Predict the structure.
Amino acid sequence: MVENIVVGRDKPDMDKYGEVGTAFLGKHIVGKGEDAHLTNPVLMDVTRPHVMLVCGKRGTGKSYSAGIISEEIAVLPPEIRENIAVVMFDTMGIYWSMKHPNERDKDILKEWGLKPSALDAKLFVPKGYVQEYEQAGIAYDSTFNLVCSDLSAQDWVLTFGFSFVDEYGTTIERVMKKLKKKGNYSLQDIIAAIEGDEKTEKRVRDSLVNRFSAAESWGIFDREGTKIEDLVKPGTVSILDISHYIQVSSSWSVRSMLVGLLSRKIYHARSLARKAEELEVMTGETRKTMPMVWIMIDEAHQFLPTDGKTAATEPLLTLVKQGREPGISLLFITQRPNKLHEDALAQSDIILAHRLTSEADLTALRGIMQTYMLDDIQEYINTLPRKKGTAIILDDNSERIYPIQCRPRKSWHAGGSPIAIKDMGILG
Ligand SMILES: Nc1ncnc2c1ncn2[C@@H]1O[C@H](COP(=O)(O)OP(=O)(O)O)[C@@H](O)[C@H]1O
Ligand SMILES: [Mg+2]
């Protein structure tokens, strides 16, 4: 009998739960080059909080692999599934296709004993962009929006790329302080307050008004924000398409603001839920609670970079350092591990590394695993068969490394690069 390999689960949990609540990622690759063949299934714990890093060069299968984990969480036994929710920050606008079965790879799936199947995910799109989806014929489930007054002066300063000590930053702080007293306020209120702020030079006021007016075109602010309970739903994969704002000069800042604010809200809601859960255990009374969350972020180095600070930096660092307690798992996807904040790297306990060649990135990985790395990571990566979806998985728990072939996806993956040859008719 072929035994399964389980990563991310410690011995006590293994003894108690066995393989229940794990995700089937792929198969262990044994042998090198021509002789390489697939052996034991590789499973990964998804029931405890983790910080997972998925890295690799462009087109090696990172986004695809994150999709596998979402698919797996969605098919856990109902009694486990209802305690877990997935929130995917879709920076590339590719995950909507998961709502469709992967008919394209029917044959490969069959080889793996799997069948195409659609994921019952919930697609959230920014309110201001619904028309684009309707025109493209993409069905979405809900819109998402933020309440302007949930953002702090700091959020705005970081989003606009000002400094806390320049005249822009200080004006924003002063104006927001006044508005905070008012309670709920809108973008228009901020603009009016800036216009009426006599202490500030006109030049600065005009520039700020410009920025805040531009924020209206992002199409994400409203009187009421998306409720966290709608986003974080038991057994549900919520996909937030934040791929827009390309036309906005600082598109990553807008996305960072979104990721930052929602991460903060999820952390807060889960911290409260954790207390309710403790009380439930103590008193035996059932209380309304919220499932544990897996937050997945593509292009994570844009939100939590090594150098500099974004509006998502602090909220994400809080999750990295303190997310275990409220039961929040993070899955960071990046092609540049070297550019991802060192705390995120250091806290990663499961690493799925697809092909990587840059010395700086390999060094970053080595840095995390040095305590038990005997062989060189590069060796492992170099001997991977040159196929899509091959990777090494580093498990901090067992302190082991496995070369694996990730399984094919059951739901459609829209992230592949287009093939120009086909368009030219060469492939007929
Ligand atoms: N496990 C896999 N099995 C089969 N094909 C895969 C696998 N992983 C990736 N691929 C293929 O590679 C392409 C690129 O993967 P993707 O995840 O979009 O790359 P990136 O690393 O840039 O996020 C996919 O469109 C898919 O065709
Ligand atoms: Mg990708």
Summary: Residues 49-145+226-375 form a domain with the Rossmann fold fold (CATH 3.40.50.300). The chain has 16 helices and 15 strands. The pocket of magnesium ion (ligand 2) is lined by residues 62-63, 92, 298, 415 (CB under 6 Å). Residues 422-428 have pLDDT under 50 and may be disordered.
